[in-house]
Sequence to fold (247 residues):
Amino acid sequence: MPKNRNTFSSLTAWRRRLAAGAVQRGWQWVQQAGAITAEHPGRLRFRRIGSGTRLAFPQGTVFGEPWIELGDHCIIGEQVTLTAGMMPGLDLGSEPILTLGDGVVLGRGSHVIADTTVAIGSNTYCGPYVYITSTNHSYDDPHQPVGKQWPRMEPVEIGPGCWLGTGAVVLPGARLGRNVVVAAGAVVRGEVPDHAVVAGAPARIVRTWDHENGWQPPLRTPAPVPIPEGVTPEQLLAVAELTPDEV
Fold:
């Protein structure tokens, strides 16, 4: 009896491994087939979707795409929401409402809500679950539910080369300069100058850079050593495989 039980357990484990492999391969195929690109836009008809840009599957809520422009080589993670206008089916005029520059990255679960114009500069990277919105609830009338009051809208502009950490929130009217770092969980409103680091809720400037003084306060860690020019990917892989004794 124990021998038969072991044989049955081995057979069950083998079947499970087989089924798991088939499910994983099937899901990889679905992800590839369901991704949105310029060559394979599916049901979505963006105003522009650049070369090399890819929206991972499954997508989040997407509507108003005739007023959404996506630059070249953008990476849009899974379950990312991109909306132009307050609801589907509106005529928003002749100009784009939501614009992503070249090389923008939106991490998994992020939301970009553009009821009025939102512009994200080239090579801006967003971690997962970042929330960028041009609209905020109003509560002027104390006798009406907040959700039933007409919202306030202000354009949002995020400069090129920025980094927005996980869970960051960018509120209506925010204007971020070039190469701004937004710490994880920060809530940003108002103007942020070039080369600044902001953190907190509400976010405040915690570090700045200029040509004369460099970073103030000074950085506490040394700058990373760049990869030397001419090093090939194969050489990097070879180095990664070395043991500590071999380095």
Remarks:
- Residues 1-34 form one domain.
- The radius of gyration is 24 Å.
- The first helix runs from residue 2 to 34.
- The chain has two helices and 24 strands.
